[in-house]
Amino acid sequence: MSLPKSPIIAIPARLGATRLPDKPLADIHGEPMIVHVWRRAMEADIGPVVVACAEAEIADAVRGAGGRAVLTRPDHATGSDRIFEAVEALDPEGRHDAVVNLQGDLPTIAAPVIRAVFAPLVEPGVDIATLVAEITDPAERSDPNAVKAAVVFPPDACAHPPVARALYFSRAPVPWDGGDATRPLFHHIGLYAFRRAALARFVALPATPIERRERLEQLRALEAGMRIDVALVDTVPLGVDTPADLARARELLAPPG
User: Fold this and answer.
1) pTM tops 0.85
2) Which one of 44, 79, 106 terminates a domain?
3) Cα 20–24–29 angle (5° rounding)?
4) Per DSSP, what are the bridge partners of residue 170?
5) Is there a domain that residue 251 lies in?
6) Do 162 and 207 sit in the same domain of this protein?
7) Alpha-helical runs (H) found in the chain
8) Residues 6+ apart with CB under 8 A from 211
9) Residue range of the domain that includes 10
10) pLDDT tens figures, 149-177
């Protein structure tokens, strides 16, 4: 195995968010948020894009903008399960050798950030690739909503972006900084690139106690011995989870003038 030759981007979307109901359909300058995310994925230009929809209303919005949508079972436990169903339905022959799982609440994510998630897959032993950014806000160091990755980047790393193996993920501040706030901690960005076989293996695994305890599904993969490597990017993209986040996204995406 080497760097995938035929990736596909899959965006899981459902209406059931509690903090921001009907989030994928939230209006941002005349278009639903999910359409903005689809546009960002298209701008990345790394392969076809499909939205894996739990409800017909989301599929209608995506198709109305010219995008491709696949209706999936509404009861999937995770976005990974949802994109697996959609990609298997769309590509049962397995032509696409990698699947990017792009969250449907990242309407401002930059195309280079999406493309960066492929960097770790140049290493044949990597099953899953994901992203981190160094934490710069001191409040995030202890915030359980800011998931941390325990990872050590070599000081002489020459790759761009720098890549290293993930040892653990937690809502706690890991690794322990010994009270020294100058020691870096890394904010995990929930954007993944799976080798196709790795995605199939991952969704077939049962949830684990440590996954349930941390509420982080990637721990299931680590516990099963799968390898996750991370690429380091400059910033954490805005995730829209609250009305305040939505207002900020509208501000960032406002037309010039």
Assistant:
1) yes
2) 106
3) 95
4) 148
5) no
6) yes
7) 33-44, 56-64, 79-90, 111-116, 196-204, 209-214, 218-223, 243-252
8) 217, 219, 220, 223
9) 1-106
10) 999 998 776 667 899 999 999 999 999 98
